[in-house]
Sequence to fold (735 residues):
Amino acid sequence: MTNAVEQNYIDGDWIYDLETYPSTFTFALSSSDGKHVRCFEVSDRINQTTEILNCLRWLAQKKHRMVGFNNVGFDYPVLHWIMEQAKEAKRNQVEYYIIASEVYDIAMKQIQTARDGFASIVKSEDEIIPQIDLFKINHFDNKAKATSLKILEFNMRSENIEDLPFPVGKYLSNSEIDVLKHYNLHDVAETKKFYHHNVGAIRLREDLTNKYGFNCMNLSDTDIGTKFFMQKIEKVKPDAFYTQNSWGRQKKQTKRSKIVIKDCLFDYVKFETDHFKALHKWFSRQVITETKGVFSDIEESNLGELSKYCEMITKKVKFKTKPTEKDLILFKKEHPLGWVEEVELKAMEIVRDENGDIVKEEYLDNGVVKSRSKKVPKISYYGCYNVAETLNVVFKDFRIDLGLGGLHGAKKGTIKESETHSIMSYDVASMYPNIAIANRVYPEHLGESFCDSYEDFYNERKKFSKGTPENLAIKLGLNSVYGKSNDKYSPFLDPMYTMRITINGQLSLCMLMEQIVLQCNARLIMANTDGFEFYIEKSKEDLAKSIVADWEKTVGLQMELVMYKAMYIRDVNNYYSVYDDNETVKMKGAYEFQDLAWHKNFSALIVPMAVKQAVLHGVDYKQFVKSHKDAYDFMLRVKVPRNCSLVLVDEETENQESLQNVCRYYPSEQGGKLIKIMPPLEGSTEFRRMNVESNWKVMPCNDMSKFNWNINYEYYYQEIEKLIEPFNQQIEWSE
Fold:
């Protein structure tokens, strides 16, 4: 037997899944090593209640764990209900039989409560059999990371991607039940495959649960960190987060009707240039009542002096008719710096006088004077005003966007180290935690003792090596506080804490960038949340380092320096950074293809692979693509909701083939058009149709055994060229 630490599964874990229909209930499970697989059935043809209950009792007695995908939210509550029904029957000394229709009703209620936002789950302490939910561990219950098992099948390169074979609520025939059982076992096999990818995460949660005394088996990384930190604080201050009243345990929070930003700004924030002085002044004048969207769509009249240094766009509102004086007064009241534009159209209109009568004009027709209706071009009238879509300041030909998520900015193109110039990159170490620690910032309801606990928590992390459960848990806890401080459901809620951290963090970085540019004549390349990159004469590197050191003393933060050989930038979220060892490459966004997070889109990975080879190594991307022999790297996927459908249309015959709602495919010279069919809009009866890949034929490939190399390589060439195009220009700055 392989050592338990080394093997990629944990003895005693059983992967399972349920399928529920009005006339059929199936329960499939597999041991984590795959040696034992079963699928139980309850239907009109067979009722395996005894086998199911015996299996569940054995798992409970052996203290084994059941592993699923969204099992805490669906599968286990259904099984728990069955086990409770069996207990009740035993107490009443009657024989219990599972009835498929009853299980189906319970399952539908469970789904409905989840949709309503009131999911009925079984508390971990009440579980008869302990549960591990891969869905929760990976935080797929977060809308931003929502990922289905079918998408995971694509990402895991499964040979077959199988969707639910029959509509929910269908009464199944015997042959259809056999298909359902096959599907049930398939889902268990795929869940088991994903389980093997998560064994490390499960062992981490085992270690933390055993060491720190709280159950974190089904918590996301962020929730583990939050819980871990809360536990630390509660040891010092037991009532820090909750109060007990007649309604039960209530979260302590600091809710704000308004936040005066001037009260949030740190005294050390100071600037030399008019650009940043105007930005600082703008912040000091703000009083906000809502944090969401507070730094977006700011009208010119509200920008004040900052408008001189801010990039804006013009928005237009069309008047139905020529605006009257009253209309103009109302428009100016709403948009003080607005103006009206007249747009002459090709269409003509008849001129009327103040009484509404048609104005006539005279003209000569072969020397005879005649009259006709006077016509002039139609005029459309627009009320115009300037807005900053995002709060920003343009400094030395570099635009810096600021917002709740941090500052951002990037030049587009390619830049490389030269004989005379370097690319320096600075990042703040643990920026948000250290801002709070250095400046004694805390959620008001937690009191200033929070700062001491937070600093102790930060220093405690240094006691544990990177990679240890303790180190990771503390890191997660430290980083979670900022996000939770603006979460209305969190006991850390205090929006003023959020504002103090994010605004001062951004202004502090602006202070440093300003000085680097002014004193070193450096040029900014990119800025992103907690750091920035700049192009600087090599002779001034030491000066830059001394400026950073002085800044560190002023703000109480520490910077980490990296030197780059080159940067290839599409935008702030999509780029390459080549380290000075010429081997290490940071890949972001569309250019990533390795170690992608499971919720990301793994489609057409051959594209970023080829781009990297072409851009960084000068390889002919067409030759690279044609010589690549891993078919999975060419695959794309599409998913449509249950109220939509996918069809493949043969352009010659117009025949259409129905496809699964999750479809793996690849562009091909053969195949057909992939069409998404959507329900009619309100007031219409016509179903909407949309091409998934405009102008391209595709071949569905949910079963990889049917794949052949009839790939249309031109599709991939065009996608590669799109990603390379931004790098064709050198980064330049105007004075």
Summary: The chain has four domains: 13-219, 311-390, 392-591, 606-728. DSSP finds 19 helices and 31 strands in the chain. The domain at 13-219 is CATH 3.30.420 (Nucleotidyltransferase; domain 5).
